[in-house]
Design goal:
Elements: E1 40-49, E2 67-71, E3 84-88, E4 93-102, E5 109-113, H1 114-120, E6 128-135, E7 144-147, E8 155-161, E9 167-173, E10 181-182, E11 191-194, E12 203-209, E13 214-221, E14 229-231, E15 243-244, E16 247-248
Parallel strand pairs: 1-5, 2-4
Antiparallel strand pairs: 1-6, 2-5, 3-4, 3-6, 7-8, 7-14, 8-11, 9-10, 9-12, 12-13, 15-16
Amino acid sequence: MDGLRARRGSLFFLATLPALILFAPGVLADGVPDCPAVFLDLDGVATFYDADGTGNCGFDVAPDRMVTAVADPDWAGSLHCGRCLEVWGPEATIVVRVVDRCPECPTGHLDLSAEAFDLIAEPAQGIVPVAFRSVPCPVAGNLSIRQQEGSNPWWLSLQVRDHRHAVASVELRESGASTWQPMPRASYNYFVATSGGGFQFPLDLRLTDIHGGVVVESDLIGAAVPGQVTPGTTQFPACSGIFVDGFETGTAAPLWSRALP
């Protein structure tokens, strides 16, 4: 799944200036997330390539092209797939979604789509300093589940889509069962489970986000249907307390940026 991708941004050394960003405290004791920035870099860089939303995360084309690839050392087995990042650039601040990995990029390097890069800097620069942090995705509806091609009653591979926060884990519960079965995460952003005797449908799903928020989708998977996308009935909990409209307040722009906070 690590196919080479056409690259338009130059990869050369650039010294960056320090950034100043204020961050929130951690997860609340009751498990309701206040959404701390758990993936961030104050002294990163960004390049760009011809990204369309597809890539190693296995998502479909993104109509707005506001997407990015993360560096190979930051890939973490596809953990960041679908996560949204707020990116401070020299000219503006934007929000992009992680859809791909950059095999040759060092840690802290974002490879943005050409459309996203054009909003934060002149494309002729090729590479620019950035600061970035994870933020809730501005989703409007519920999450959804896609079954990978090849899924069948004995081997099931599921991908979570349209989620507010990064997905930490997925578990399934068969019809009539009382226990939850973990679905290990594959490096290509699907959660996989097997059953020697065949799964007993319909299946419940329990999904946990990176902040500890949990949702349960009852009877969501009625049968193994390769390629099917099933709309859910829930969404990961929104940020609480210190956030307005899902985004943290009190954030200062990096010192080198002309973007307004």
